[in-house]
Amino acid sequence: MAMSASFCPQISHYFRGRIAYPFSISSPNSVSFRAFSSQISNASAQVNEATRVGFLGIGIMGSPMAQNLIKAGCDLTVWNRTKSKCDPLISLGAKYKSSPEEVAASCDITFAMLADPQSAVDVACGKHGAANGLGPGKGYVDVSTVDGATSKLISGHVKSTGALFLEAPVSGSKKPAEDGQLIFLTAGDKDLYETVYPFLDVMGKSRFYLGDVGNGAAMKLVVNMIMGSMMASFSEGLLLTEKAGLDPKVLVEVVSQGAISAPMYSTKGPSMIQSLYPTAFPLKHQQKDMRLALGLAESVSQSTPVAAAANELYKVAKSHGLGDQDFSAVIEALKAKLQNSSNE
Where does the 3-hydroxyisobutyrate dehydrogenase-like NAD-binding domain lie (predicted)? Predict the structure, then answer.
């Protein structure tokens, strides 16, 4: 179903009233915008099964996240532009609605996991978008990775309906999503955070509350900027090791046992050596996040030369048709550079 951001009007005011929720909600005595985190030790978080939950966007991340909610006993309603992607969830007991508006209208809380800022705006604010089905007593949680301006735009539109809004982008890719090991970086309405954290605990291993809308988006972009730069540097190391006559497999082992150890290296390294890039986090999304992070840096006059250089490498990889492969395929852009150099 096509949606257009042109249906999202300018927001002239924000809803500031207290909401009486029809479902269980914890109201803190005082709202603190100091960032705090929670590590989740209970692998099977308890959710309110009477709460009707919606999930918009059934892709690489959304599908396993929604599946974990179903396994936890959630009354789940789903939507995706390509309906067939919802079929496995429907077979597990999920309901299906034909538009984001219908999902939001039928649910107490609606989660959205979309691929990019434009999609996030279209699904929330477009014709038949979720905001058309929202109102007092409902909550909208956007777990997509977007820039702060986009998150604030969606927040304003959601809150103008009387609903509450929480941004909650995730750190983690396909496997952590499947295992319920995501990290949520939340910001926005504290009351909604207190309501939805049991659902976040089903899908993740930890959650951070960071205050005002935009802070969660900014933190996620910084995290992905670092990750993208690390992968570019790791790719250079693998190729340099091989060119120096060393075994790149040994490099992976050495790195995994030292101070710079990161799960990403030991997970991605072996397949990168074989020139295999099974998609856990598409390269085109990594480049999008790098671009958004550079925009964030520009907005606060922060120099990011390493990330800027890495971003150019991801752009080259995209130009070679690698956008839908895993972001570790960025190593192929370096291989192409080396090949061109050797031919000169």
Answer: 214-333
Residues in the chain: 344
Query: What is the widest separation between alpha-carbon atoms in the chain?
Result: 70
Which one of 152, 220, 268, 284 is the catalytic residue? Answer: 220
Identity (one letter) of the amino acid at 191?
D
User: Mean pLDDT of all residues in the chain?
Assistant: 89
Confidence of residue 15 (pLDDT cuts 50, 70, 90): very low
Where do the structural domains in the chain lie, given as residue ranges? 18-26+34-211, 218-343
Asked if 220 is an active-site residue, the reply is: yes
8 Å CB contact between 217 and 166 = no
Which ranges constitute the DSSP H helices of the chain? Answer: 62-71, 87-91, 100-106, 117-125, 148-159, 174-179, 190-203, 215-243, 248-257, 263-273, 283-299, 305-319, 331-343
pLDDT at residue number 310: 98
Q: Which architecture, in CATH terms, is 218-343? A: Orthogonal Bundle (1.10)
Residues 6+ apart with CB under 8 A from 201: 40, 42, 45, 207
Q: Which residues are 164's β-sheet partners?
A: 139
> Distance between CA atoms of 124 and 57, rounded to whole angstroms?
11
Structure tokens at 259: 């101070």
The pLDDT tens digits of the residues spanning 41-80 come to 444 467 888 899 999 999 999 999 999 999 999 999 999 9
Does 21 score more than 60 pLDDT? Answer: no
Q: What is the dihedral of CA 33, 38, 44, 47, to 10 degrees?
A: -10
Fold classified for 18-26+34-211: Rossmann fold (3.40.50)
The answer to whether residue 10 scores a pLDDT higher than 90 is no
- Which structure tokens are listed for 185? 């970086």
